[in-house]
Amino acid sequence: MSGRDVRLRSDRWFRPDTLKAFGHRSRIKQLGFAGGEFVGRPVIGIINTWSEITPCHQHFRQRAEDVKRGVWSSGGFPLEIPALSLSEPFQKPTTMMYRNLLALETEELIRSYPLDGVVLMGGCDKTVPGLVMGALSAGLPLIFLPAGPMLRGTWRGGPLGSGTDSWRYWAERRAGLLDDTAWTEIEDGIARSPGHCMTMGTASTMTAAVDALGLTLPGASSILAVDSGHARMAARCGRRIVELVLEGVGPDAILTPASFDNAVTAVLALGGSTNAVIHLVAMAARAGFELTLDRFDELSRATPVLADIAPTGRFLMEDFTYAGGLLGLLTRIRDLLSLDSLTVSGRTIGEELGAGAVYNDEVIRSRERPVADNGALVVVRGSLAPDGAVVKPHAGDPRLLRHEGPAVVFDDMAELSARIDDPSLAITENSVLVLRNAGPVGAGMPEWGMLPLPRALLERGVRDMVRISDARMSGTSYGTCVLHVAPEAAVGGPLALVRAGDVIRLDVAARTLDLLVDGSELAVRRAAWLPRASRYGRGYGRLFAEHVGQANTGCDFDFLCAGRPTPEPEIF
């Protein structure tokens, strides 16, 4: 490899006969490597988001070694570099606040070190877009290595889905229908192995989206974390990234607007997470393309839901894997895809689908018997959401998709938690629950959008109500939840003006969400409205609140979406 005439970015660090390059070479030798092992070879950064606080990635220590094996076998030189680990279960107030921090760190790690290409190791929710956003801005050849789903959960002979069944059985417990013994058994059985959520939550959705986008080895997102095929896939990532460097193929040679349409279409056919809307919009912008909410809605009208996976379906990701996985599903919507879109394999999506097949028509439905004809994700607009809001219709009660009712308003999550079970709260099953100040500026946009129902209504058998917020919800959640209302309340969006008893009308089929209050009255309220003081006076929280965009634009930082291209670092 060292004898090849290949222009490598890392040569700027290692090849010159200068004192600085001497220092670079001597420090790599300090690690125990000989000059022939790294000078003139593609240097591959393995950006690893492993940590002991991120259980989804607990197998990544070994997977990094598998990637290195592949890099070495193809003549490259691997360097493992840790990056911020975004742990969805533990990080507060929300990993959404730190997605952009991971993106910023990833971009700067890639740019500032002597790397020729990168393997991005992630899977847990915001880790996926954070890594990809940063790497797209850096522009070097890349492959994303998805963590893979965990094994299905189990309880008393039946399956458990992470997240989804947590919400479901918690509601039953609050209603007095589940005892402490059963609850502890569920806690013990719902997460049984390494890997991300095995429902079609945000992790499964986003790894599949990046797969359909062409940035993983095709089909890699469907491999279970504990399957030996996952280790083999990791080694293939190591081999292939060396080839991409030598071929000079970066993400700009792979990604197009049609690639993003493929990713959106895959998400829709999967019945995927609403969070994909925000993340794909942000990722597209980093690649230099505009992906709008209207494009999501346009594709949603034409794309059937074929994956019968929780939270809206009957099965889990383990079943999906054995049924044919993502490649199997894509074979059934190939007429909706841009088949000539390239992937990091060097082949087109159309060519890769030749290996796809479906082995279980219950898990991956046929076009003649879909889970739903269309409408996996719907964008609604109106006087309450001028810039749009997102609904996942098939996750809610069909009777509530066209609903009109009085608002019960909560100014923040603390107020909701304190009041939701208050017997004096004026609320019925026809009320519309409204949570505000939970958007990107207001609270970092946590997953609070699946508002809890009052205990009194749960005890009467009510399991769904219309819920509206400027928050997100977990991809594992369900219910008639209107999310990502933009502009958010914290910046003066109409949600800030809603008062208890105001009538709100939702019509998903008509794509509308309206506050039925006279314009003159709203003008009076607006004149009296004052923004809340930011809770952050310093630090990253202040940076986030001052520079984050709204949900409809992807919640990226303004200074990462504009300005001159960042130059290569100077080496003197």
Molecular structure report:
The chain is α/β, with parallel strands linked by helices. The protein folds into three domains: 42-151 and 193-355, Rossmann fold, CATH 3.40.50.2300; 154-189, no CATH class; 378-528, IlvD/EDD C-terminal domain-like (Glucose Oxidase, domain 1, 3-Layer(bba) Sandwich). Helices cover 35% and strands 12% of the residues. The chain has 20 helices and 14 strands. The strands form three sheets. It has an eight-stranded mixed β-sheet with strand order 7-8-12-11-10-9-13-14. A four-stranded parallel β-sheet has the order 2-1-3-4, with helices on both faces. Strands 5-6 form a two-stranded antiparallel ribbon. α8 (202-213) runs antiparallel to α10 (257-270) and α10 packs across α12. The longest helix is centred in the middle third of the chain and has 20 residues, at 228-247. It is globular, with a radius of gyration of 24 Å. It starts with 10 loop residues before the first helix and ends in a 25-residue tail after the last helix. The model has no long low-confidence stretch (mean pLDDT 96).
Please give a handful of descriptors for the protein shown.
alpha/beta, 8-stranded mixed sheet, 3 domains, 14 strands, 20 helices, Glucose Oxidase, domain 1, Rossmann fold, 4-stranded parallel sheet, 572 residues
The neighbouring-strand order within the major sheet is: 7-8-12-11-10-9-13-14
Based on DSSP secondary structure assignment, what is the total number of beta strands?
14
The best one-word shape is globular
Fraction of helical residues:
25-40%
How widely separated are the two ends? Answer: 27 Å
Overall pLDDT score:
96
Give me the Rg, rounded: 24 Å
CATH topology of the largest domain: Rossmann fold
Q: Return the domain count.
A: 3
Number of helices: 20
CATH level-4 homologous superfamily of the largest domain: Response regulator
Could you describe the largest sheet, including whether it forms a barrel? Answer: 8 strands, mixed
What CATH architecture of the largest domain would you give?
3-Layer(aba) Sandwich
Question: What are the low-pLDDT stretches, counting only 5+ consecutive residues below 50?
Answer: none
